[in-house]
């Protein structure tokens, strides 16, 4: 059975806006979807999903957020084999390097990566929110 989770970290709310739109897009096609801030879900519970859309902005110097999100992802990483995974996040002044590294890491973990990670600069515009919605909708059919 397909079941979906959106799991995100967001410091100033930009990736959270993306997460809510991705969630809405998935929900349009599949009602079996839940959304969690990364602090609200355990690694054990996350393993139960067939599809996970992860959201995290570029932090530090082109890395995932290091206090909560990266430790969570690192623990889950060895269990991602066969899971369908979508990645998204907001960034500021960089060129998306954190997302390229994250895609490589996800593929190396054996996950089935959906498209390229969706990246948006700073706070999503209404067009950006729609991109996230469409991304979620397509992921629901993946
Ligand atoms: C401590 C810190 C480090 C950051 N490092 C990067 C970076 O390396 N590259 C980049 O493109 N943006 C960087 N940013 C900008 C954030 O990715 C950007 O503000 C993003 O919209 C934050 O998303 P959020 O609102 O979901 O937390 C950094 C922001 C902060 C606060």
UniProtKB/TrEMBL annotation:
Q: What InterPro entries has UniProt attached to this entry?
A: Flav_short, Flavodoxin/NO_synth, Flavodoxin_CS, Flavoprotein-like_sf
**Which keywords does the record carry?**
Electron transport, Flavoprotein, FMN, Transport
| UniProt-listed PROSITE patterns | FLAVODOXIN, FLAVODOXIN_LIKE
- Organism domain of life: Bacteria
Q: Which cofactor does it need?
A: FMN
* Flavodoxin-like domain boundaries: 4-140
Q: Which family does it belong to?
A: Belongs to the flavodoxin family.
Q: Write out the function statement from the record.
A: Low-potential electron donor to a number of redox enzymes.
Q: What is this protein called?
A: Flavodoxin
Organism (species): Fusibacter bizertensis
What are the top taxonomic ranks of the organism? Bacteria, Bacillati, Bacillota, Clostridia, Eubacteriales
């Amino acid at each position: 059975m397909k079941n979906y989770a959106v799991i995100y970290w967001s410091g100033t709310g930009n990736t959270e806006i993306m997460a809510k739109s991705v969630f809405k897009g998935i929900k349009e096609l599949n009602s079996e979807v839940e959304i969690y801030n990364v602090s609200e879900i355990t690694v054990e519970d996350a393993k139960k999903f067939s599809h996970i859309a992860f959201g995290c902005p570029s932090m530090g110097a082109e890395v995932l957020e290091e206090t909560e999100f990266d430790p969570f992802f690192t623990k889950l990483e060895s269990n991602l084999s066969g899971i369908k995974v979508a990645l998204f996040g907001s960034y500021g002044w960089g060129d998306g390097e954190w997302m390229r590294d994250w895609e490589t890491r996800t593929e190396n973990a054996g996950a089935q990566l959906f498209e390229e990670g969706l990246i948006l600069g700073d706070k999503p515009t209404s067009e950006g929110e729609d991109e996230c919605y469409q991304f979620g909708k397509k992921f629901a059919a993946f």
